[in-house]
Amino acid sequence: MLPPFSQIAVEHIDVAVQTRIDHVLDVLETRLAVIEQGALPTWDNIVAPLEDASDLLEQTWSPISHLNGVKNSDELRVVYEQCIEKLTEFGTKIDQYEPLYHAYKALSEGEHAKRLSVPQRAVIDQAIRDFTLAGVGLSDDKKQRYGEIKKQLSSLSNQFSNHVLDATQAWKIQFDDALALAGLPDMAVAAAKQTAEQKSLTGYVVTLDMPSYLAVITYADDRALREKIYRAFATRASAEGDVENDSQLNSVQVDGAQWDNTSIIEQTLALRHELAKLLGFANYSELSLATKMADSPQQVVKFLEDLAEKSRGHAEKDLQELRDYAQGKDGITDLQPWDMSYYSEQLQQEKYAASQELLRPYFPAEKVLEGMFDVVNKLYGITVLPEIEVDVYHPDVRFYRIEKNGEIIAYFYFDIYARDKKRGGAWMADCRTRRVKEGKIQLPVAYLTCNFSSPVGDTPSLLTHQEVTTLFHEFGHGLHHMLTQMTDAAVSGINGVAWDAVELPSQFLENWCWEKSVIPLISGHYKTGKALPDDLLDKMLAAKNFQSGLHMVRQIEFSLLDMKLHADYDPDNVQTVQSVVDAVRQQVAVITPPSFNKFQNSFSHIFAGGYAAGYYSYKWAEVLSADAFSLFEENGVFDRDTGEKFLQTVLANGGSQSAMDLFVAFRGREPSVDALLRHSGF
Ligand code: ZN
Description:
Helices cover 56% and strands 8% of the residues. The protein is of the alpha+beta class. The radius of gyration is 27 Å and the shape is globular.
């Protein structure tokens, strides 16, 4: 049954969610009581009933959570936050529920385990792993320490991001005359004027907020201004932190060092290391990799170093090209980090004037969708068909069914236009998970959400090629969720898939929108239907790899730093973070940032986000998706057998087998970096 959107009333949500939570806890208690009385734990007497109850909760919660993202209101937000609090508390309770852990342990070690299917085995193993990582099974004193560390880490992470935020917001620079901002696009200048007004100042104000910083560093003709903003940005939340730049305002100076994150980073690394040791790991990197596809920190480091070695020459070439260009253009003989984006942008404009805007008329949303459905039809033999008469939450939302061999196998909501009260960005979310319920298959249902501009008058919605890529990306996630063959919720679709392998199916599908043979399927001028002219197409394809060498080594630098900081941490011989930063730069960077650069002090991904000892996964997933696609390059991009093979291995099995095994089953060997290097133009 689909969510009855039109009947969801905000005032009923809280009670509905609470009822479902109570039901899960009720089932849990009843089942554990049976086991306590002597029954041996089995799949049917504990795991299946719990999954049934949890799925009901999921069914109630998923439309609420979705509406909060796509049709927000003040009333809904209040209830949503109340529910999130409840759900978090409930989740923690289950994660650390000792008797449940023992029941799973007994199940996994007992006779009954022999009768489990491969996916069922994976469900049990993953549950036990997660219990262990949550500190269940530790002795009482260790458990107490575990709780303390977790608490301190969460507070440190909070402080870290608050410092970054405060340091970012404390800096501004004001100009009376727009001439100071020469080079910036009109829109950015207008934004600077608006910022000034918001701060009750005259003229124009530039800040370190992303849009403002990016506009200045990319477009400002004034080299001294670029240097100034670069320095301020790169020293945020450090002892060298720049603050109020008040040459023209004469306001009071604030001491930026109050937001210095250096000691927070040191404490975080020490506590993470202690936590890992407590749970039986050698270091935090190993703990992080316990839930990932990569085996060991050594494997990741080797992977990154290998990639760095093979990319370095290209990064140097990119840099030289930029140096030559800056010298030829403005006589710059000492290209600095604050010149990179500026000359890079101009060089790109000069070389590939094909701006995203010129491409737009050739990618009307309807044509792109039709073409994309055609692509997956050719790949997997599935047909996507619109359904009407479905209870949707907004008239713009479409609903589709997916058929294979005349049978319906999945459904999805497609909500592609930006509008008021809808969160920005693009994402896929789970509405219903494929599983067996009372002997019947519950079909998977996905929510696919984008934020493209909606049709205006007679002009249809027109996409940039970047937006087309986003669409394919999210649809790739959607297919991972919808084409699964699994029937146990915890490993069905994207559930249970290793964290660093989740982006494989999404990035993989992106490849098709860069294929010359696919472009005619997904494009056509919205007025004339004419194909994208060859010169525009060639420029679009060539621009894809502009400065890809430099981009690659930068990402490797961040990834390597992250992995080494966590893997090599030694409490008896603590290296300063700066010395690790310097060593990594020495190893991979082609342009050494100035010594004042303290980018690590605002590296929120790893110190205030979920990417600790996991930043490498961006590159890792790119390698996997490029390598998977290379089999299509060998066999033909629409080779049906290769498509079926991908479907039956990577997509069908969800999280029931290791991501590496599934990859090998598809590709016939372990992943290699060659395809990514080739796709990057190396
Ligand atoms: Zn993604």
